[in-house]
Amino acid sequence: MNARRTARGLSLHAVVWLIAAFVVVPLIYAVISGFKSTGELTTNPFGLPEQWKTGNYTGILGDGMFWRQIANSAGIAIGTTFCTLAASAMAAFVLARYAFRGRELFYTLFTIGLMFPFAVAVLPLFLLLRNFDLLDNPLGVILPQAAFGLPMTIIILRGFFRTIPAEVEEAAVMDGCGKFRFFWKILLPMARPALGTVSVLAIVASWNNFFLPLLVFNDPKWQTIPVGVQQFQGQYSTDYALVLAYIVLAMVPALAFYVVAERQLIGGLTAGATKG
Amino acid sequence: MPSSVVAPAKDPAEKRTGGAVPVHSHAPARSLPRGLGSWASIAWFLVPALVLFLVFVLAPIAVAVHTSFFKWGGIGSMDDFVGFENYTRLFADQVFLGDMGRGLYLIVLSITVQLPFALFTAVLLNQKLRGRAVYRMLFFAPYILSEVVTAVLFTMIFLPGDGMADHLAGALGLEGLQGKWLADPSTVMPTLFVVMTWKYFGFHMMLLLAGLQSIPREILDAASIDGAGAWQRFRYVMLPLLGPTIRISVFLSVIGAIQLFDLVWVMTAGGPNHSSETMAISMFQFGFKRYQVGYASAISVVLFMISLVFSLFYQRYVLRRDLSGAVTTGGGR
To answer: Which of A5, A104, B124, B176 sits most deeply, having the most CB atoms within 10 A of its CB?
Structure first.
């Protein structure tokens, strides 16, 4: 019995290891290859580098373009998150806590947005942004991203705002607190966990967006990291080791963010999907 | 974050919190707005979201519909009205019909291969297993990476001749595959699907894990006491209770496959010879490379109609029974 249990435990581990290898081997391959020269990548594809070359990595880190792209991505992510949160929190507040004619209609209107894949809107969005003169302007990416983030954010925040007892609001009103002051001074601070969750979702979505920045930014000085990665690959397509080093460095901020915000991220994604 | 697109539904918050909710769709409200002042302040709160939404989400759909009735290169005045010509042309276009077929192919594989794989992993990690928190975190990690980074990584891995995949195939005696992968029409779609699975199975695993963890221990214990083995517990207790989660997972896979762009654009740009082209790639090619903006708009509209019809249908007939009292609750709080 005991031996059987051990055997079962071992085979369980073997299976998990196999899946882990499927996930990790491509990543490790990229990291190690970044330390090789492209020549060595051909002759020695799997082994450790004969000599660890750091030149690929340090070369990229010394290049202002890489940092520029990181800064652009970060700025756009922050701007998007701010706009999404501000607009969604205000809308979710009245949609959650006040009864008025047409409330459910407004709510349904926002939730319908969940059915529009981004890819559908991207071409007409480009035409609109061109008319608004928002091409090569960070707002041309921030505002549409914020708009597409509204449905999910409003759904999650409205759900949370509804869980705050009416007594809290009554007490505040009794103390002479107006609607806006209640929202700003009491509700938002109480909703900090939910705001954290939706911020993390907005940041990740913005950081990884490729389609829209690709179209909106013609000028390299605005390029975000995903666009930069694609351009870099096009530019150095034969220097495989260098390209791999570039994507490894491009992964680092996302993975670091994941390690820090894992709970909000997974909580938010599973909640968003199942609660919807 | 395309995969977090979900079905709109009534929020279950009111059920979870019972009496704590102040306002409720049909219940009389405590703070009914009185007079114009109140209405104005409510409007003031709604306006920013409403404006953003109308301008950047709804208006583009209208623009696409309008543009799709014209033959237009994208610049200058739009005056060559062609009626439904772009649509008739679209449905006679072998490449576009192929796009839909390839979308279907990816959907079928996602449901028959990726989902069971994710479910298997979720069940595995739902057991007492040393280091399972680490595995969980590891398997989800690819989901965090952008599709572009993933695409470039696997472009390098599947590079003909020098890529890791070719070396691996050589070592395993699969020389027939060498030099093919993304470069050959017969292998490009399965290869693409492997990359999609690498990136997305961890997300579905997380959803299913949240579902599994919300199954009350007592139900499983009761099944054990009644003599159910591990397989029977899975088949007759866990699987039915996971129904709502599985249906959501299928929904997300379908929506993801319909709008697939980044991954394919960077890895193959739809090639070789259109053999990996998706609807979104076709739209991009015509709209931004060949300057047939009217035609590309027609593709956008069709893409939109497909997702709309699918979403409405799926919610009406598949998700409906889950909307009240789904077994899964949010893992967030």
So the answer is: B124
